[in-house]
Amino acid sequence: MKKNKLVALILAALFVLMTLAACAPTATSDPTDAPEATDAPEATDAPDATDVPEQSDSEGKVYRTYLTAEATTLNRQDNVDTYPDTPMSYCSSYLYRTYPTEDGKGYQYIPDLAAELPIQMDEEGYVWQIKLREEACWHNGEPINADTWMYTFRMYLDPILANKMAGMFSEYILNGYEYFMQGTSNTVAWEDVGIKKIDDYTLEITFADTKTQFSACTPFNGADVSPVYEPLYEAGMNESRTETAYGSTLDNWMGCGPYYFDTWTYNSIHIYKKNPNYWLADLFNYDTVEVRIIPEMNARVELWEQGMLDSLTPDANTLEIYLDDSRLVSYPSLSVYHIDINCKNPTNPISGSVAYRKAMYHAIDRETLAQYIFGHMTPSGVYVNELAGIESENHETYRESSYGKAVTDMVESWGPYGYSPEMALDYLKQAYAECNVSEDTVITIKFAVDETDSAWKACAEFFQQEFPKIFNNMVQVEIVTYAGMSATDFKSTGDDKWDFSPNDWTRGASRIYPHQCFYYYLSSYGGSPNNYFDEEFEAQFAVCETPEIKNDYEKLLPEVQKLEEIYLEKVIQIPVVQVINYELFSERIQLPVSTYIPGFGWGFIYGDIVE
Amino acid sequence: MVKYILKRIGAMLLTLFLIMTLSFWIIRLMPMSIFENPATPPDIQKLLMAEMHLDKPLFVQYLYFIKGVVTEAEFGTSVQIRPGMDVFEILASRIPPTVLLNIMSLLISIPLGIVFGTIAALKRNKATDNIISFLIVICISVPSFVFASVLQYVFTFKIPIFPTLYDTQAATFAGTMHSLLLPIIALALGPMATIARYLRGELIETLSSEYLLLARTKGLTRTQATVRHAFRNSLVPIANTIIPLITGIMGGSLVIEKMFAVPGMGGLLIDSIMAGDHFLTVSLLIFYSTISLITILIVDISYGIIDPRIRVGGGK
């Protein structure tokens, strides 16, 4: 009996111990917890903690925002998620920072870690020098100079590290892409890459194509081109130099931005405190920025209603509640939701026919989908997005130009946003004839959709209802769902598994060069989501890429028009809706701009609190 | 008793090894590549694969995995969820809030379940019993996230006396608990009802048994007879329900943690599977299995205390 009581006592003690162990405050029990912003690795000759200004305990002006998911790392070189951009934008810096123009209607680049705007060194605009800001330093006080940048760029483009974001950046720099993609072949030396140190505070960049002063700043504005702190980057490197743990916690990351990364409770909250010694400190008004990680929409709405969030991006359902709210603003995105069509499905006898692709294009009632399924978006029968070209020299988008409008008019002549059941049926019959398929054959279109994607699943169900009506029961739709893998992975399981696959891929470079939105649909792009490639289309894309066309916007626009016409003629894929973003702002926030500025946004980072 | 416990621990370790093996093989056979960047040159992909022994046959990979776990407690490095971070570190940072949430909900649900079950049994077929039984049915039928939504709406929005989200910055334990009370209640209701329902049924049967009648005729009061004899005998089947309760709470907390932004284990398993972070997925499966096995061990040991007849081979 005594033994039993002893065991019972031990069990009870174990239970209490487990409870107490778990009751330790999370903020301190998390091994990933933030060190003081003043922390520096022992391996370096870091200045004394006293060199770093003390942070005020007073919260002052607090900006409260959220992320829907946590940043997996602060090493943006090797991460394709945009979640790290928020902490990076506050706590790190770039060579050039975007800032609104005086009238608040546009934006410009201002030097940040650079001392001045780039200096053109040759007549054509290939070679530019960047003078570095001499007072720029890390949060531990160590200087940021040309050596910092040479190390940063070399690691970013390192072919063995194979950073996920490096592909796009490498294309800007002379021999950058060749160096980055060489793998282990050692065919291109780092010395051949167009990034050179001239002196301790001067870099010389040779671009792969010609640049203006504005476009020469663009590659150096973004979290992926923030400087990396060499001692910690190297400390996190594995033996074979294929991977670094830099940025996985605050212990192995160093900031240099207008705010210190004060607290990082993973999956819960970020707290940034203002860095009063930052060289552009006057541009920043918040004393503290609190970023909560809130995956649940309902929780976000409740916090918004309680006034505990300063902004909210409503989803399609929540949007209905706020449609008449004066705090709601909307603006177009770079994305045009579209459907990739398989041209090689062995079980679909007409999949290789262009007439079949045209039939599908005309069978889509985009107005209904945009309004009722995607929720207050803009139907679109064209693929070049509404922001394409906004960062061109004269800031005129392609869609606003006469060339873009001509294509839109052509689409409208077929029917509202290209929807024409009659044309769809005619083209389908043509496809049947071309492929020698008898008209009593019923084609089954496999609509492959991610199990968790409710909007596209609803779309597929809509097609399931509509297509038999439009095509006189010659076509039926089968919904094929997949889970736990990307669309690309699913498509790679076999050409017989899918006919339609929804997609939202877009390309940021289209903001400057409208034709760039088609980049992923070229045979030269290894990871293309499509298997349909057209020679005429690719030749026209190459025309748009020639330097004399690409760098002269007036010449580029008519060529993009031709490209988009070929895209529609061949139906490279099917555009469905232009994505519209909606956002709510609290009244206590004063933003630096009055309207959304594409490429810049609302400038929350420069906002102020007006209680 | 010590021999009994050692035997149980031995069986537990063997089971854990089998689970580790199964988890490894099942996850690694999933059709998904750890390295999903199409832009990475093939020779670099090979280099990365070699770095993690992924270029070797699956059985050799398994041996590396077992060697790492057994000799160095090394579960691998996350490649997607927290790139470059040791999987054990990720778990260590996520376990405390989850354990706190689950243990606190058990601490509430077990005693309250016993109290309500006992009251319902003693007041059998009376209004009190009917009310408790009705509430039990509600609490068992309605999923915990529905309670969580209602509690969150009422007590953080309509009557804002609790914070909407878990407060990781709370300076005191009381502050932490204040922000965690709603998810704890939401998680506790289901298990509490389950325990109450089982106990009510067992007690009703025991209270009408002949040996309890004998105890009463020997002069014991109703309370003495109930507490000393009926209650103790009814606890054996109740102990058996605690194992699925704990695993159920773990499952329920996946959703609740997300709703209240508790930075725990919730959703990590799904995220790791979705992201193809195989090392992390296997480690999480091992973690959940270990929790279940420890619970089974504790319950098995408690059987021995509740009823000394239930021991392996009747051993002492």
Describe this structure in words.
The complex is a heterodimer of chains A (611) and B (316). Chain A contains 19 helices and 19 strands. The radius of gyration of chain A is 27 Å and the shape is globular. About 7% of the residues of chain A have low confidence. With 611 residues, chain A is an alpha+beta fold. Among the domains of chain A are: 116 residues, D-Maltodextrin-Binding Protein, domain 2 (3-Layer(aba) Sandwich), CATH 3.40.190.10; 180 residues, Dipeptide-binding Protein, domain 3. Helices cover 30% and strands 17% of the residues of chain A. In chain A, a hairpin with a 3-residue loop joins strand 8 and strand 9. Chain B has a domain of 174 residues: Orthogonal Bundle (MetI-like fold). Chain B is built from eleven helices and no strands. Chain B has 316 residues and is mainly α. Chain B starts with a helix and ends in a 10-residue tail after the last helix. In chain B, helix 6 packs across helix 9 and helix 9 runs antiparallel to helix 11. The interface between A and B is large, with 72 and 67 residues.
